């Protein structure tokens, strides 16, 4: 089990810098680095160019070749990530054993968190589609079509990678429909019953569409999707899962103030809720009441003898008096 490093601040300036790196309620957008290995193909360079265009402006493209082998030695990746304050990386490689190779890497605390390797099987670049493109820094809507993205561990990790890469942190408020410019659709084929290893996993189809609102005759407009590219078919190759301790630290959330907790933010207190009007409502649980010991009105008819039998004579007299 790998231990996370702890840095003790030497002065106030270092302490402020470390505090900024602590978990935040709303994280900033993650920066991605696109770097090529010593050998790469035209298909790899085209894919990286299109993926870089979709990620801009939170993206850095390295034009020079680098001697990088992510699964064998991740020291170069960690150096680039710390130097450029980036937590996402895409490495483009090409070899006879693994042609047209892309390695998606996530970093945490300056170290590699997890990696997933994809092979580019089919490609239609963004330049091959003569259709309108989305604007810079537009936030896409991401749609995943397959049960594998919720059940298979490899595809669950791939879904997490792609969401971190293009969707960023989750929004507290739903975006307006007229701000939607493009949709990223990721589809995985059905898993065959004979597939017992990762070598036979189905392809992942990566498609990007521009969104256009049209009149529908009602208040809700009709959404028309037009493919803008790129159109990529990925094959899943090697996967390196995250260390359990490191993933636990990466998912750690900051402590919220008491006022924020009472307003309903973060983890709610037990039996305390906030209604639609913003008022704090509490729920109190009491023990089961014994109605036999409940004190009622002091009437003769309600008196009980020590033996437990009621005085029927007095009760009958009281009823006669009430009738008069």
From TrEMBL:
<protein>
    <recommendedName>
        <fullName>Ribosome production factor 2 homolog</fullName>
    </recommendedName>
</protein>
<dbReference type="GO" id="GO:0000463">
    <property type="term" value="P:maturation of LSU-rRNA from tricistronic rRNA transcript (SSU-rRNA, 5.8S rRNA, LSU-rRNA)"/>
</dbReference>
<dbReference type="Pfam" id="PF04427">
    <property type="entry name" value="Brix"/>
</dbReference>
<keyword id="KW-0539">Nucleus</keyword>
<dbReference type="GO" id="GO:0019843">
    <property type="term" value="F:rRNA binding"/>
</dbReference>
<feature type="compositionally biased region" description="Basic and acidic residues">
    <location>
        <begin position="260"/>
        <end position="291"/>
    </location>
</feature>
<dbReference type="GO" id="GO:0000027">
    <property type="term" value="P:ribosomal large subunit assembly"/>
</dbReference>
<dbReference type="InterPro" id="IPR039770">
    <property type="entry name" value="Rpf2"/>
</dbReference>
<dbReference type="GO" id="GO:0005730">
    <property type="term" value="C:nucleolus"/>
</dbReference>
<feature type="compositionally biased region" description="Basic residues">
    <location>
        <begin position="295"/>
        <end position="308"/>
    </location>
</feature>
<feature type="region of interest" description="Disordered">
    <location>
        <begin position="260"/>
        <end position="324"/>
    </location>
</feature>
<dbReference type="InterPro" id="IPR007109">
    <property type="entry name" value="Brix"/>
</dbReference>
<comment type="similarity">
    <text>Belongs to the RPF2 family.</text>
</comment>
């Amino acid at each position: 089990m790998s231990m996370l490093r702890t840095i003790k601040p030497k002065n106030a300036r270092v302490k402020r810098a470390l505090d900024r790196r602590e978990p935040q309620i709303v994280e900033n957008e993650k920066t991605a680095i696109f770097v090529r290995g010593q050998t790469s193909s035209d298909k790899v360079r085209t894919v990286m160019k299109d993926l870089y265009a979709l990620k801009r402006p939170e993206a850095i493209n390295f034009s020079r070749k680098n001697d990088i082998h992510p699964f064998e030695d991740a020291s170069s990746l960690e150096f680039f990530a710390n130097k450029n304050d980036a937590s996402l990386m895409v490495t483009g490689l090409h070899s006879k054993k693994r042609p047209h190779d892309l390695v998606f890497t996530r970093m945490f605390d300056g170290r590699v968190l997890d990696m997933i390797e994809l092979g580019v099987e089919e490609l239609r670049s963004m330049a091959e589609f003569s259709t309108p493109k989305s604007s810079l820094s537009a936030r896409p809507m991401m749609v995943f079509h397959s049960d594998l993205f919720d059940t298979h561990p490899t595809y669950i990790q791939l879904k997490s990678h792609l969401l971190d890469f293009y969707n960023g942190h989750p929004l507290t408020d739903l975006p307006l429909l007229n701000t939607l410019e493009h949709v990223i659709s990721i589809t995985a084929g059905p898993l065959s019953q004979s597939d017992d290893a990762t070598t036979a996993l189905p392809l992942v189809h990566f498609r990007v569409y521009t969104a256009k609102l049209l009149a529908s005759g009602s208040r809700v407009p009709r959404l028309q999707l037009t493919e803008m590219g790129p159109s990529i078919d990925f094959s899943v190759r090697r996967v390196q899962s995250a260390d359990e301790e490191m993933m636990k630290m990466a998912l750690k959330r900051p402590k919220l103030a008491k006022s924020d907790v009472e307003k309903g933010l973060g983890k709610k207190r037990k039996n305390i809720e906030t209604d639609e009007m913003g008022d704090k409502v509490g729920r109190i649980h009491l023990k089961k009441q014994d109605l036999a010991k409940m004190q009622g009105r002091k009437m003769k008819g309600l008196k009980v003898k020590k033996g437990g039998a009621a005085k029927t004579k007095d009760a009958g007299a009281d009823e006669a008096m009430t009738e008069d």
